[in-house]
Specification:
Elements: H1 10-13, E1 18-19, H2 24-32, E2 36-39, E3 44-51, E4 55-57, E5 60-67, E6 70-73, E7 78-84, E8 87-90, E9 93-95, E10 98-106, E11 111-113, E12 116-124, E13 128-130, E14 133-135
Parallel strand pairs: 1-12, 2-4, 3-5, 4-6, 5-7, 6-8, 7-9, 7-10, 8-10, 9-11, 10-12, 11-13, 12-14
Length: 141
């Protein structure tokens, strides 16, 4: 996790706090939410995926993923590219940027290398994040 000059997390200064497990509300429910599997386990795909429903990535994807709902990057999954979704739960790995999110949660084994643009960010203890965060005021762009 990124740390500032005084040894404290830059996220702590921005009001974000690390969590030891996926928070109960609402992100824990996201794990169980009914989703369409867009990229199955042991599958490698590249391109652009656009959905209007909750979607789960379980394999490896290179490109852009966009959903009008939830995107879940499952444990063991990896995306290289950009993700656009109002809700994003990362349990696996993302090497790229997050745009247009209202809420992002990095699970306990998440690995994120890239920039995050969101209104709300939760980083669980054990997650790895290397990048920059831009937190917009809710409702203001």
């Amino acid at each position: 996790m990124a740390t500032g000059q005084n040894g404290h997390s830059d996220l702590e200064h921005a009001g974000a706090r690390p969590a030891t497990q996926i928070p109960n509300e609402p992100a824990a429910a996201w794990v169980e939410e009914r989703t369409r599997v867009a990229v199955g386990r042991n599958v490698n795909v590249s391109g652009r995926l656009v959905f209007h429903e909750p979607v789960r990535i379980e394999g490896r994807f290179r490109g852009e993923v966009s959903s009008a709902e939830l995107v879940v990057i499952s444990e063991g999954a990896m995306i290289e590219g950009k993700v656009r979704a109002p809700r994003l739960l990362i349990m696996g790995e993302l090497r790229g940027d997050i745009a247009g999110s209202k809420r992002v949660v990095l699970g306990p084994r998440a690995r994120m290398d890239g920039n995050i643009d969101t209104e709300s960010l939760t980083i669980c203890e054990g997650a790895h994040f290397d990048g920059h965060v831009r937190m917009a005021t809710p409702g203001v762009k």
